[in-house]
Request: fold
Amino acid sequence: MPDSLHIISSRMAGGAERFCARLTNALSEAVVGRVTAVHPLHSAVCQETASHVLHRHLPMWSVVDVWSRWAIRAAARQTAPVVVQSYMGRATRLTHLSRKAGVVHIARLGGFYNTAGFRHADAWVGNSLPICDHLIRHGFPAARVFHIGNFVADAPEPTPDATLALRARWQIPPDAAVIVAVGRLHPVKGFDDLLYGMHRLRELIPSRSLRLVCVGDGPLRHDLQALTARLGLTKHVIWTGWDLAPERYLALADLAVCPSRQEGLGNVILEAWAARRPIIATRTAGAEALISHGESGWLTPVRDPQALAKAMLELLGNEPLRRALTACGHATLCRRHRRETVVTAYAELYRTALYWPK
Reply:
């Protein structure tokens, strides 16, 4: 089994970063070669990877960081035979390897990125079938495009004291219905649509105490907070910033919401299922590939705050439906996104990759 280098340039604690940490931990525990995580110092990956995973710290400030590009190539050369797996755009653009025997570059994609910066890899992994189809439509060879999904750990039920402490920290009233959204505060994640939907929901049920908890950070934070104030929602919306354990907040949720405008998979859907919470998601390609509407979750149109508000109203008022969605969602997670299945698929890919013709 070849060693593997896992390269990610982000310092954040988003879905791709947390999955990189989970995968490197799992591969190392399964003794799938020697596993090394390559990432910036003090990144989320650094904090979440286990002690048995090796680390290399590179700044990877930009796609023209010549020193980091040289260091990645040197690390691959020193470790060969090796599979180098890059995550997202910047790390992939910085990974330009010598095409000699014993070094293979696999680019993993969790979104519908511009394909121009990924073509130089030897193979590509999409974490959903729509992403794989996106690559093939753009001329990538189908024989080198692989579908391997994500997994998440089953979230332990928090203790009552921990739940009470978290509610007290954010001053959430005991009678408040809690809606939780997790993600990067970026235009594609649709948090502004969720805020408009929350505003409409308060109009529909003005007497009910509501709290929207937004777990994440990103370039739109200040704009979204300003929109919150304009909509009169300041007392009703909580901004936690990034958190390495978003499952703590999902445990508070009466509803989890994924309001994205574009989503390749939607880790928050898997995380809601793992936390045994009902999920409402917009009809992105990733969400539709995961969720059976009315069975494992609830789907609403993209960019439609009114429909989102209507769905939240319907589910908040129907506890039996929420329980049914929760049970089916968790069963779907266990059936289709087991850790062992994903690790085995990556191990098999790595095992065969070194024998591909260059």
User: Anything to note?
Assistant: The chain has two domains: 3-151+338-353, 160-336.
